[in-house]
Amino acid sequence: MDNSNPQTSSDQHEKVCIIGSGNWGSAIATLVGRNCARLQKCETDVNMWVYEEEVETEDGSIQKLTDVINTQHENVKYLPGIELPNNVKAVPDLAEACDGATLLIFVLPHQFLPKLLPTIREAAHPSCRGVSLIKGLDFCPETKLPQLISQSIAEAMGPEFQCGVLMGANVANEVALGQICESTLASNYGAPADEITRQVFDSPTFRVSHVSDVAGAEVCGALKNVVALGAGFIDGLQMGSNTKAAFLRVGLREMAKFCHMFFDGIKDDTFMQSCGMADLITTCYGGRNRRCAEAFARQRKNSHCMEDDDEEKKDSEMPTSEIDH
Fold first, then answer.
1. Which of 107, 232, 113 is nearest to 175 (CA)?
2. 121-137, pLDDT tens digit by residue?
3. How many angstroms separate the CA atoms of 147 and 242, rounded?
C-alpha cells in the first residue's frame, strides 16, 4: 500500500469511500460520484458501503440491494427514482469498501459506529481522514458532558486521524434532484486537503464553503433539531408567523450559547453559515422533526377541544327534574 500522506501530498490520488447508503448517503453519492469522475486528484471509482438486505424489484423478484444498485444504478429502497453515477460501487463488505481509502465519508446512524470503526481503521489508508455528515451529539461516559461525534470517530480511528464535518440546509431529496442549496465543510486538515475535500462535495447546485470551526458547525447540526420541535409545536397550535420568527431568533441564540458553554474555539460567524442559520430555517419549515411535532400538537389540541366539547355538553344537559321545577 502507498503510505504517502494524502493530506499533505499534492501528488497522492484520493480514494473516496462513503460509509452508509440511506437516503442522505445515496443523495451525497450522486455529487461525490460525479466529482470524483472529473477531478484529476481523485480515483474515479467511489465505494459505497451498503448494509446488505433484500428488496423486491419492479418485476416482483427478490434481489440483494447491492446487486440492484450496481446494475440499475439506483437505490430503489432509500432514494427511488434518482440515478446514481456509474462509478459509485455498492459494496456489502465493510473492509473491502474501505480498503486503502484516503477520504472516509461517514453518513449513517451514529449508534452503528462503535462496531464498525475497528474494521474501518484496519482497512483504510494509514493517513486517511474523515468527514462526518452525521447530525447528533455523543456524551462522554466519564464526564457526562456533550462530545462531538467527529471527535468520537477520530479517537476510535487513531491519534493521527482528523475528522471534519459537512453540515448545512440540505434536504436529501432536494440535493439529489439538483435543486440549488449550500453546505458548510468544517475541517482543519491543512493544505491542500481542505480544498480538495471541499471540491469532492462542491457542485454548481451544491455550493460548499469552508470554515475551520468544526465544533460550531457540528453542534449546530444537532441542536437545530431540538429547535425544530418547538417550531412544530407552534405550527400545530397555529400560533402564527410572528411567534415562530421570534422563537427561531431565540433558538439560534440558545444554540450559540450552548456551543460557547461546552466547546472551545467557537466562532460567531459559524452561525451565519449554511450549517447555522440556513439549516435552522429549512429544518424549522420542512424538516421531519418539525412535521412530527406539528402532528403531535394538532392531535393534542384536537383532543382537548373534544374534551371541552364533552364538558360543555354535560353542563347543557340539565336533568328533567330541574326543568320541571
1. 107
2. 999 999 999 999 999 99
3. 34
> What do you get for the CA distance between the two ends of the chain, in Å?
100
Distance CA 106, CA 316 (A): 62
Whether the pTM exceeds 0.85: the reply is yes
Residue 319, burial from CB neighbour count under 10 angstroms (0-12, 13-18, 19+) = exposed
Looking at residue 300, its pLDDT comes to 84
The answer to whether 175 and 287 have CB atoms below 8 angstroms apart is no
224 annotated active-site: yes
> Does the N-terminal peptide bond of residue 192 adopt cis geometry, omega within 30 degrees of 0?
yes
Amino acid at 300: R
The SS3 call for residue 50 is: coil
SS3 145: coil
Which is the catalytic residue, given 224, 244, 267, 314? Answer: 224
**Which residue shows C-alpha cell 474555539?**
265
Please work out, in degrees rounded to the nearest 5, the angle formed at the alpha carbon of residue 240 by the alpha carbons of 237 and 242: 135
Q: Which long-range contacts (CB under 8 A, 24 or more apart) does 61-66 make?
A: 64/92, 65/21, 65/90, 66/90, 66/91, 66/92
Task: Look at residue 181 and give its three-state secondary structure.
Answer: strand
Q: Which cell numbers hold the place of 298? A: 394538532
